[in-house]
Amino acid sequence: MNNKKLRKMVLIAMLGSIATILMQFNFPLPALPAFLKFDFGEVPAVIAIMTMGPVAGITVELIKNILHWFLTGSPTGVPVGEIANFATGLLFILPIYFVFNAFKNKKGLVSGFVAGTVTMAIGMSLLNYFVFLPMYTYFLNMPPVTGDALYTMIVLGILPFNLVKGIIVAVISILLYGRMNKWINQQQVELQ
């Protein structure tokens, strides 16, 4: 195995582990449903896509969610929350990669975060409406949330939560990008 490939694998594993640790420190946001927990686990995935591309970011998201499931388990017995978090991560990081890769500057990064935040917020609203909330209620053997209650949960809970999450992660990642720009550019050159 060549040195670049090994270095890339080690870096992905390290970022996945850091993302897992960051995911453990989750907390609810005020005025939003308590079952929605905010964490900073997307930041290492953003670093991965900026340095090594989309496959690395997806792998970091996958490592994070598999390790989180093994460490904490799931109240449903099925990793519905981890699957939802994985989908959230992909909807967030992939637009960032494609927009940032097109411009490769701070303006492109900011535009990527806007695209990622909007994609994540709308995508997770739809996925929660059609897939994840019905899965939770099914596996928890609860009556399904329907009608106005479901609509309210999506519009007043999940949509604003994902918008706030995207904004917070974007601000932190942009600040990190400013501090890590030289290292990120060096990693891109060395790992290509």
Question: How does this model look, in words?
Answer:
This protein is an all-alpha fold. Helix content is 81%, strand content 2%. It has a single domain (3-191), classed as Arp2/3 complex 21 kDa subunit ARPC3, CATH 1.10.1760.20. The chain has six helices and two strands. The longest helix has 45 residues, at 147-191. The model has no long low-confidence stretch (mean pLDDT 91).
Strand order in the largest sheet: 1-2
Secondary-structure element series:
HEEHHHHH
Structural class by SSE content: mainly alpha
The assigned CATH architecture is: Orthogonal Bundle
Rg estimate, integer Å: 17 Å
- Overall pLDDT, averaged? 91
Measure the end-to-end span: 15 Å
What's the CATH first level?
Mainly Alpha
Secondary-structure map:
Blueprint (H helix, E strand, L loop, with lengths): L2 H22 L2 E2 L8 E2 L3 H11 L1 H19 L7 H24 L2 H34 L7 H45 L1
Antiparallel strand pairs: 1-2
